[in-house]
Design a protein that fits this description.
This protein is an alpha/beta fold. It is about 15% helix and about 25% strand. The protein is built from two helices and 19 strands. Strands 2-5-8-13-16-18-19 form a seven-stranded mixed sheet. It has a five-stranded parallel sheet with strand order 1-4-7-12-15, with no helix packed on it. Strands 3-6-9-14-17 form a five-stranded parallel sheet. The N and C termini lie far apart (about 40 Å). GO terms for molecular function: O-acyltransferase activity.
């Protein structure tokens, strides 16, 4: 019986990633995702996003209000919790992981840690966020960056590993306002 339940939960995850997250109509896609992750008002998960969540707990991945998660992203809730604040813009191809492997372990033990992305953060294309990272309010992550450590608020970071390359001077008093009626893959 336990194996049947696990199979059905795995099938649900497969169907979400292969069918629901490919639907080109954001309103329908977001409606079908309601039981799988916590998503705030006016937030949009574009098509072709991959959601990883082996525990099947709805609150493992939490997305705030007015957020955009573009296509090709991976949101990992297999390890720790993934908490995304309000007005966060995640560009295409960003990978966010909450679980990794211990490089010092002979058997490749897994390490699970929370990832926290605070309000008004912009993560540019192809960035990778590793387990245990907190990205401070108003920060910008440059394209292709690999974030291995915490990012202070209003910092601009880039590189591999990501290092501070500037400070964000703009006001953080804005609201993302992007919600297409049709999202082509």
């Amino acid at each position: 019986m336990k194996q049947i339940v696990l199979f059905l939960k795995s099938l649900r995850l497969y169907l979400i990633n292969k069918l629901v997250l490919k639907i080109p109509f954001p309103h329908l896609r977001n409606f079908l995702l309601k039981g799988y992750l916590i998503k705030g008002k006016r937030s949009n998960i574009m098509s072709s996003v991959t959601v990883l969540n082996k525990t099947f707990k709805r609150n493992k991945i939490q997305i705030g209000d007015n957020c955009i998660v573009n296509s090709g992203c991976i949101l990992d809730g297999r390890g720790g919790y993934l908490k995304i604040g309000n007005n966060v813009d995640i560009a295409k191809g960003v990978w966010i992981f909450t679980v990794g492997h211990d490089p010092h372990s002979d058997i490749h033990d897994t390490i699970s840690k929370d990832v926290v992305i605070e309000d008004s953060v912009w993560i540019a294309s192809r960035a990778i966020i590793l387990p245990g990272v907190t990205i401070g309010k108003g920060s910008v992550i440059a394209a292709g960056s690999v974030v291995t450590k915490d990012v202070p608020p209003k910092s601009i970071v880039g590189g591999n590993p990501a290092k501070i390359i500037g400070e964000r001077r703009s006001s953080l008093e804005y609201r993302n306002n992007f919600f297409p009626y049709l999202d082509m893959i």
